[in-house]
Amino acid sequence: MRILTAIPVHNEEAHLESVLTEVLRFSEDVLVVDDGSTDRTPDLLRNFSSVQVIRHPKNLGYGAGLRSAFERTLEGKYDGLVTLDCDGQHEPCRIPEIASHLDQADIVSGSRYLQIFDPSQIPPEERRRINVEVTRWLNECLGLNVTDAFCGFKAYRASALPAFEITDLGYAMPLQVWVQAVAHQLSILEVPVPLIYLDESRAFGGALDQADYRLNHYRSVFHEAMRRAGLEVSGGCR
Question: What are the beta bridge partners of residue 107?
C-alpha cells in the first residue's frame, strides 16, 4: 500500500526540522503543505529535497492545508493518506501503525483519550471542555462512538477522499469530515495515541482564541454540514 504522509504547516520554523527528520524515518512519501508561512519555514524546507511541498501564497487555514493534502493523494494515485501536525504533539514513529489499520476502516482517527500514556500530560482546560462538547455532538447526532473530535493524527483510504467537500478552511474543518463520513457511510476506527502538549500558548487566531466564540463557531459549522448532508439537526444536536 502506497501511503502519503502529509503535514500542514504555518510558521513552524521552531519544530519543522526535527519533526520532518523524524517523519522521514517512518514514511517514504512525505508532503508538507506550507500554508503561507512568513518565517523561515520555506527556507528550511529547501533542505529536504525528497519532500514534496505545496505552498499556499497566503495563509488560508488548517482546513485548506488538509484539502490540498487530499488532492495530492488522489493526484499521486496513493492508496492512503496519513496526516499529522508539526508542533511535536504527534509521534512520527506511530505513522506505520496508524496506516496499518486502513485494512479495517476508511478513516483511522487517533484518540488522545482512549488510553493514558503519561498521567502528567493534562490538556488545557478550555480545549478539553470544547473537545468533550463537540465529541458529544458527534456521538449523539451522528450515532458515532468516538472519544476525540479534534485529533489531527489520522489515516484515510484514498478511495474515501472523494466523499469530502471541504469548504471550511479553518480549524472547524474536521467537523465537515465527520459529518460527510457518516453521510457517505464510511467506516471509522479510533486508535490510541499519546496526549502530548508542548506549547499551550498556541493561538487559533482572532476571535477564535475566545473559547465561547470558538465553540459557537464550531456549532455553526457542524449544523451547516448536517444540513448540507441532509441530516436532521434536532434535540441534543442543537
Answer: 156, 188
DSSP label at residue 234 = -
How far from 12 is each of 15, 21, 85, CA to CA, in Å?
6, 14, 10
E-only strand ranges, 119-223: 154-157, 188-192
- Sign of the alpha-carbon torsion through 78, 83, 87, 91: negative
C-beta of residue 214 within 8 angstroms of C-beta of residue 164: no
Query: What cell numbers appear for 20 in the block?
Result: 520532518
> Which residue is it, cell 489499520?
101
**pLDDT tens, N- to C-terminus, the chain (238 residues):** 999 999 999 999 999 999 999 999 999 999 999 999 999 999 999 999 999 999 999 999 999 999 999 999 999 999 999 999 998 889 999 999 999 999 999 999 999 998 887 887 777 888 899 999 999 999 999 999 999 999 999 999 999 999 999 999 999 999 999 999 999 999 999 999 998 876 545 666 676 778 889 999 999 999 999 999 999 876 666 6
* Half-sphere exposure in the Cβ direction for 12 (13 Å, CA): 22
- Report, in this order, helix, strand and coil percent for the chain, each rounded to 5: 45, 15, 40
Strand partners, 31: 6, 52
Under DSSP, the state recorded for 13 is T
What the chain holds in terms of domains, given with CATH numbers, is 3-122+145-203 (3.90.550.10)
Q: Are strands 154-157 and 107-111 parallel, antiparallel or unpaired?
A: antiparallel
